[in-house]
């Protein structure tokens, strides 16, 4: 993802004034959306003060329309004040596809930093999700994921060491977890129970992702199963909402 680049007001194709007879807010929103599209992702937008003075409108009107474009994903705020054109969102369409495979399929070179990779004793909750006895040995893996050198997600997952002996010995900064499980143990993901919710990151996760603690994120909690219904992994990961879109498809079953 390209880093934000400064765009001076003189570099932008702004009309000299708003047209009479049309709501000022509607015109301003259309202009800002057009400018954002033309400027490309990650570009610094003019300040609210500049826009208010340039178009001779109230500062509150500018803020209202900027807020609306932020909510629509056209713009985003950084450090509470500066406003940038939004980046193209990277989206996992298939929950069964690994991060590495998904990014490579999109022509993006993924990068991973391992934050934690140790064998631990399973507490009651993780034991229940993995369908193992409490106290069983589980491999806890935490990784910081990057897209084009920018932090994208903090992925946390747990796997049974009894089912995947030696899993802690692999280099998880360079290897795909799902691909390794399939190639080494012959286990292929078949279906996933997934719960998705919007949250604000804690200070530690916000620091890892390089975002403000006020920036919304998505918590994706899932249990991955193989064809026989056995549990492969149980994870709870945090994704930047400005970089991740979840697509779903629903179909009504025929009436019987």
UniProtKB/TrEMBL annotation:
Residues spanning the signal sequence: none
Keywords linked to the UniProt accession: DNA-binding, Transcription, Transcription regulation
Transmembrane segments: none
InterPro entries: Bact_HTH_transcr_reg, Chorismate_lyase_/UTRA_dom_sf, Tscrpt_reg_HTH_GntR, UTRA, WH-like_DNA-bd_sf, WH_DNA-bd_sf
Pfam families from the UniProt entry: GntR, UTRA
Superkingdom to which the source organism belongs: Bacteria
Domain named HTH gntR-type: residues: 21-88
Gene3D superfamilies: Chorismate lyase-like, Winged helix-like DNA-binding domain superfamily/Winged helix DNA-binding domain
Entry-linked PANTHER family: MANNOSYL-D-GLYCERATE TRANSPORT/METABOLISM SYSTEM REPRESSOR MNGR-RELATED, MANNOSYL-D-GLYCERATE TRANSPORT_METABOLISM SYSTEM REPRESSOR MNGR-RELATED
Protein name: GntR family transcriptional regulator
Organism per entry: Amycolatopsis bullii
Organism lineage string: Bacteria, Bacillati, Actinomycetota, Actinomycetes, Pseudonocardiales
């Amino acid at each position: 993802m390209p880093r934000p680049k400064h765009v001076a007001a003189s570099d932008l194709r702004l009309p000299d004034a708003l047209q009479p007879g049309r709501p000022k807010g509607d015109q301003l929103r259309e202009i800002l959306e057009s400018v954002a599209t033309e400027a490309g992702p990650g570009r610094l937008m003019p300040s609210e003060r500049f826009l208010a003075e340039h178009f001779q409108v109230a500062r509150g009107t500018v803020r209202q329309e900027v807020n609306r474009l932020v909510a629509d994903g056209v713009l985003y705020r950084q450090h509470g004040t500066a406003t940038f054109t939004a980046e193209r969102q990277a989206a996992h369409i298939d929950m069964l596809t690994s991060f590495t495979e998904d990014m490579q399929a999109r022509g993006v070179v993924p990068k991973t930093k391992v934050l934690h990779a140790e064998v631990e004793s399973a507490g009651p909750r993780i034991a229940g999700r993995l369908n193992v006895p409490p106290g069983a040995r589980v491999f806890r893996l935490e990784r910081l994921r990057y897209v084009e050198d920018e932090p994208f997600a903090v992925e946390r997952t747990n796997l049974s060491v009894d089912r995947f002996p030696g899993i802690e010995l692999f280099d998880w900064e360079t290897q795909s977890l799902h691909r390794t499980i399939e190639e080494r143990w012959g286990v292929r993901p078949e279906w996933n129970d997934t719960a998705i919710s919007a949250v604000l990151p804690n200070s530690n996760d916000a620091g890892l992702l390089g975002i403000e603690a006020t920036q919304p994120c998505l918590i994706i909690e899932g249990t991955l199963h193989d064809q026989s219904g056995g549990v492969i992994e149980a994870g709870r990961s945090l994704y930047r909402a400005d970089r991740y879109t979840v697509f779903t498809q629903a179909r009504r079953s025929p009436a019987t």
